[in-house]
DNA sequence: TGGCTTTTTGGCTATATTGCCAAATAGGGG
DNA sequence: CCCCTATTTGGCAATATAGCCAAAAAGCCA
């Protein structure tokens, strides 16, 4: 039941896991607006360049982004733009949580 | 640029991270077919019950599943079924990778 | 109550991830 | 060639995650 799908699920998990970090989510969103070089992303995130570079490597190895070296800069872009739709659902989970907390708060208040 | 969104991105990341594990992906898909108790999920996955229980806790804390105790069993179900659509995009990343590997293989063959 | 089933919790080890610094690599332009 | 900028790599410490076992908790039923 699980064993037969395990390899496939592991492949999926690798991709999803690569998105499960605030900085990497930021990068994905930013690349949704167009390609960016490491230097610019680093400035926006405010972490060490090496850290951002490693985040980009994670996204690249997961197949989420592509890199393109031009001169002494490396530009990254999304490989599959639909990644962005992805977030609608995540938001609805967060929305459901907000509603529940509100409902709970009201119940406590009564 | 990033700092202002950081909390929101971290909240998103928590949810996505919770999905980034093969067993948890399996659970999500299985719950897409209907509610399941811990015991049944454990049988399907083939890990220790305590391990599966912990995976379910992760999903629950992320707001992805809800639990419902009936008798001495606990039934889990998806809180937001759209989670399943989610995977279409992940598949397209995998599809893009497959195509690229094929193209690469052809290039090498020539 | 005692025994059985189901689930969660605590504790432990092994492994993975994150982030920084320092150093290496690579490209461009005097 | 040397210097400057951009990026990656190596290494390290701190923290987080995953999985198992053993034990606790909770419900049912006789």
Kindly summarize this structure in a few lines.
The structure is a homodimer of 110-residue chains. The first copy, chain A, is α+β, with helices and mostly antiparallel strands.
Model description:
Two copies of one chain form a homodimer. Chain A is an alpha+beta fold. Helices cover 63% and strands 13% of the residues of chain A. Chain A folds into two domains: 1-79, Arc Repressor Mutant, subunit A, CATH 1.10.10; 81-110. The first copy, chain A, has a three-stranded antiparallel sheet with strand order 1-3-2. The model of chain A has no long low-confidence stretch (mean pLDDT 89). At the A-B interface, helix 1, helix 2 and helix 5 of A face helix 1, helix 2, helix 3 and helix 5 of B. The structure holds a DNA duplex (30 and 30 nucleotides).
Task: Give the amount of beta strand of chain A, in percent.
Answer: 5-15%
> What is the H-and-E element order of chain A?
HHEHHEEH
Tell me the strand order in the biggest sheet of chain A: 1-3-2
What is the structural class of chain A?
alpha+beta
- The CATH architecture of the largest domain in chain A is Orthogonal Bundle
Low-confidence stretches of chain A are none
Helix content of chain A: 55-70%
Q: What does the radius of gyration of chain A come to?
A: 18 Å
- Quickly name the level 1 CATH class of the largest domain in chain A: Mainly Alpha
**What is the number of E strands of chain A?**
3
* Largest protein interface, residues of each chain: A-B, 45 and 46 residues
Q: How many domains of chain A?
A: 2
Q: How would you name the CATH homologous superfamily of the largest domain in chain A?
A: Winged helix-like DNA-binding domain superfamily/Winged helix DNA-binding domain
CATH topology of the largest domain in chain A: Arc Repressor Mutant, subunit A
Spatial gap, N to C terminus of chain A: 47 Å
- Major sheet attributes of chain A: 3 strands, antiparallel
């Amino acid at each position: 039941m699980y064993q037969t799908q395990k390899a496939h699920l592991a492949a999926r998990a690798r991709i999803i896991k690569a998105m499960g970090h605030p900085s990497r989510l930021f990068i994905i969103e930013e690349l949704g607006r167009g390609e960016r070089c490491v230097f610019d992303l680093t400035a926006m995130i405010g972490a060490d360049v090496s850290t951002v570079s490693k985040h980009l490597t994670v996204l690249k190895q997961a197949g989420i982004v592509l890199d393109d070296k031009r001169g002494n800069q490396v530009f990254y872009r999304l490989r599959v733009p639909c990644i962005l739709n992805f977030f609608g659902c995540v938001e609805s989970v967060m929305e459901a949580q907000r509603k529940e907390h509100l409902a709970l708060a009201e119940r406590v208040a009564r």
